[in-house]
Structures are given as structure tokens and as C-alpha cells.
């Protein structure tokens, strides 16, 4: 049972890491806004075909919370990917992958600020270490860039995406008690619909790129693997070993993203990248370890 869970969760984080690579490969082959719209349109069609009967059964629970679910779909699915894919026009996939490590720590910070969850010394140290790793990556190893406010536009967009997704994750505690298929159908529909205006603006400004063969490959990959299979695999992994243990696998996303960037895209790995990975993942590990020790 554990082996099956581990394989499912490894595949999940591999797919999530691959999302950044697909976004980088898509540059020049399909524009970011159109990629996001097409991705969620395909994901919605697949999900609706599989779970429309489940949605009908859950509709009495979904309808009163439709605005909430629509906002979750926009921020968690559409806005996050719009920012990431746009960021990859200006920054490397290695940078974007490592900066993803900031998501758990931003979640930790938001939970403290909004819900006043207790904070312990180990968690604070872990937060600082992870933040240092993200800042080191965003400034390309030169902290003087932060003082000069000389931040790459792509890295700035990734930081915005991190904050957006962390907010989405924190807000998940208010989700209605519906089946995951119903939940995903409504969120993917919202993501598709709310990304259409961005795609229209992209077209009106002359920046739209209709996908070529490689572009369609990126669209299909992001629709099937990060959007569909990863969600199913992750939920099954949680069922097998529990949410706390399963959540630790998310720390592998920056690792897989970085390795895939080097292997597939041929991007360079600098010393500051290695230091940033050690700081970020070490910080997350320390915060998790501290939290688990206190709970036990």
C-alpha cells in the first residue's frame, strides 16, 4: 500500500514540476494566456465527461457556494498559471522551479496572520531559511539587486503566483463537502471562463500566438498531467498514507522542476541555485519537523 502511495505521489510532483518546463517550452509556440485558456478548456471537458453525474448529485451543495468556487478556480487555477506562464517569458525554468518552494512558507505565514495559528521557534527558523532561498534565486545570487529593486520581471511574476496559490490553498479550508470530481469540474470551468478575457486582450494587443505542433503538445501535457492525473494521484496518495505524510512530497516539486530544466531545456545550474535549494528545502523540512514534534 505504501509503495503504491509513494509511486503515485512521486508521479504527482513530477507532473507539477513538468508544468514549468512545458510553460518554458511553450514560449514562441503558444502565448501564455491562450495556453492557460486551452489547458483548462480541455481539462474541463474531460472532467465533465467523467463526473457530470456526480456534479448533478452535488449541485444542491455547489449552487449556494458557486461564487466562492468561481473565485477559487480563478485564483488557484487561472491566475496562478497565467502568472507562471507569463513569467517564463522573462526568467528561467530553474528559477521558477526553485521559487515554487516558497509556497508552503507563504501558506504558513497566511495561516498565522489570518487564523492566528501558533508559531514555534523551529517553524520561524525554517520560514527564514526558505525565504532566504527564494530571495537568493529571485535576485540571481546577488542580494544587491534587491536593494536596487532590480528584480527580473519574470521572477517578480513568479513571486506573485506564489502568493496567489498560497492564498488559494489557505482558502481550501472553506470548500463545501462535495466530491472531488464536482469540485474540480466547477473550478476548471471557472479557470477556463475567467482566462478568456486575458486571451482576448492578448489577441487585441497583437501578442497572441496560436499553437503550432509543439504548442499543442504543451497544451495537451498541461491539461492531462498537471491538471488531471496529478490531482487524481495526489488524492489517492492522501487516502493511502494521510494528508500530513503526503504533503511532504510537495517539497520535491522544485527538485524535479530544476532537474527537468537542466535535462530537457539545457539550462545552466549555478552555485546560487544549489544554495537556494538547500536553504528552501531545509527550511521546509525544519518547519515540518518542528510542527510534527509539537503535535506529537
UniProtKB/TrEMBL annotation:
InterPro entries: Diverse_Substrate_Transporter (IPR051258), EamA_dom (IPR000620), EmrE-like (IPR037185)
Coiled-coil region list: none
Residue span, EamA domain: 5-138, 153-286
Alphabetical UniProt keywords: Cell membrane, Membrane, Transmembrane, Transmembrane helix
One Pfam family named in its UniProt record: EamA
Recorded superkingdom: Bacteria
Membrane topology listed for this record: Multi-pass membrane protein
Major subcellular site: membrane
Subcellular location per the Swiss-Prot or TrEMBL entry: Cell membrane
Transmembrane segments: 32-50, 66-88, 94-113, 120-139, 151-171, 183-201, 213-234, 246-265, 271-287
Name of the featured protein: DMT family transporter
Organism: Aquibium pacificus
Taxonomic placement: Bacteria, Pseudomonadati, Pseudomonadota, Alphaproteobacteria, Hyphomicrobiales
